[in-house]
Amino acid sequence: MTQDFLLLEKNMQNNEPKHSIEEIRTLFDGEVERFSNDTTGQTSAVDAAMVLNMIEESAARMQPDAKLLCDIGCGGGNFSIRIARRLPQLQITLIDLSRSMLERASARLTAENIRVEKSVQGDIRETPLEPQKYDVIIAGAVLHHLRAKHEWKDVFAKIYQSLANGGTFWYWDLIRHENEEIQAIQKERYAEYLAAKIGREQQEHTFEMIERSDTPETPAFIILTLHEIGFKKIDILHKNATFLALAARKFIE
Q1: CATH T-level topology, domain 3-249
Q2: pTM of the entire structure?
Q3: Does 191 score more than 60 pLDDT?
């Protein structure tokens, strides 16, 4: 590792408590612009534009007749906008902690004549989802805010139960690695990516926010949990550094 990265690692090992949900909500209320670009996506995420393209095309091809989409942690609505441009019959449910994010996402969708069925401010752990309703559910860069393994299992189960038969779940998020050596290498790669994209100072700030706000899980845990819950067709769409995109489909025979 570089000397700068070792120093950053040392500075971040301060055992400060994680941000509360209220603190996270306040942070995102002030970050609306950063999450409202459907061309670049969230630039602090590796290969965000590529993943936007990939999920848009894949969802449209797999479910051309989809009617209902739920966007969990919708931010500025990038994923919903991109998919609804391909599937204009879609009706969208938006869910986010931040009222400011919901208002921006809803305004952007409405401006493109995309129907917003529902806009819900809330924590997905506490937000009910109607059973067997949605054809498509997206969780883009949001579930890393979950704090414990049982919360991941509960949220994945809620998503599975809310999908109609044949429905698809699209996951894109920050992850961690099982092996410490691999985690260190991939974290350093992410640090260099951020430094090139937004500068070293903002890169350090991003890593500090990850330490205070995020609890990412491993690909193995995510895939095994999805399978245990009932998803039988799970595909890795993309993996680079500390980011992973997955697609999972619900089939009940």
Answers
A1: Rossmann fold (3.40.50)
A2: 0.92
A3: yes
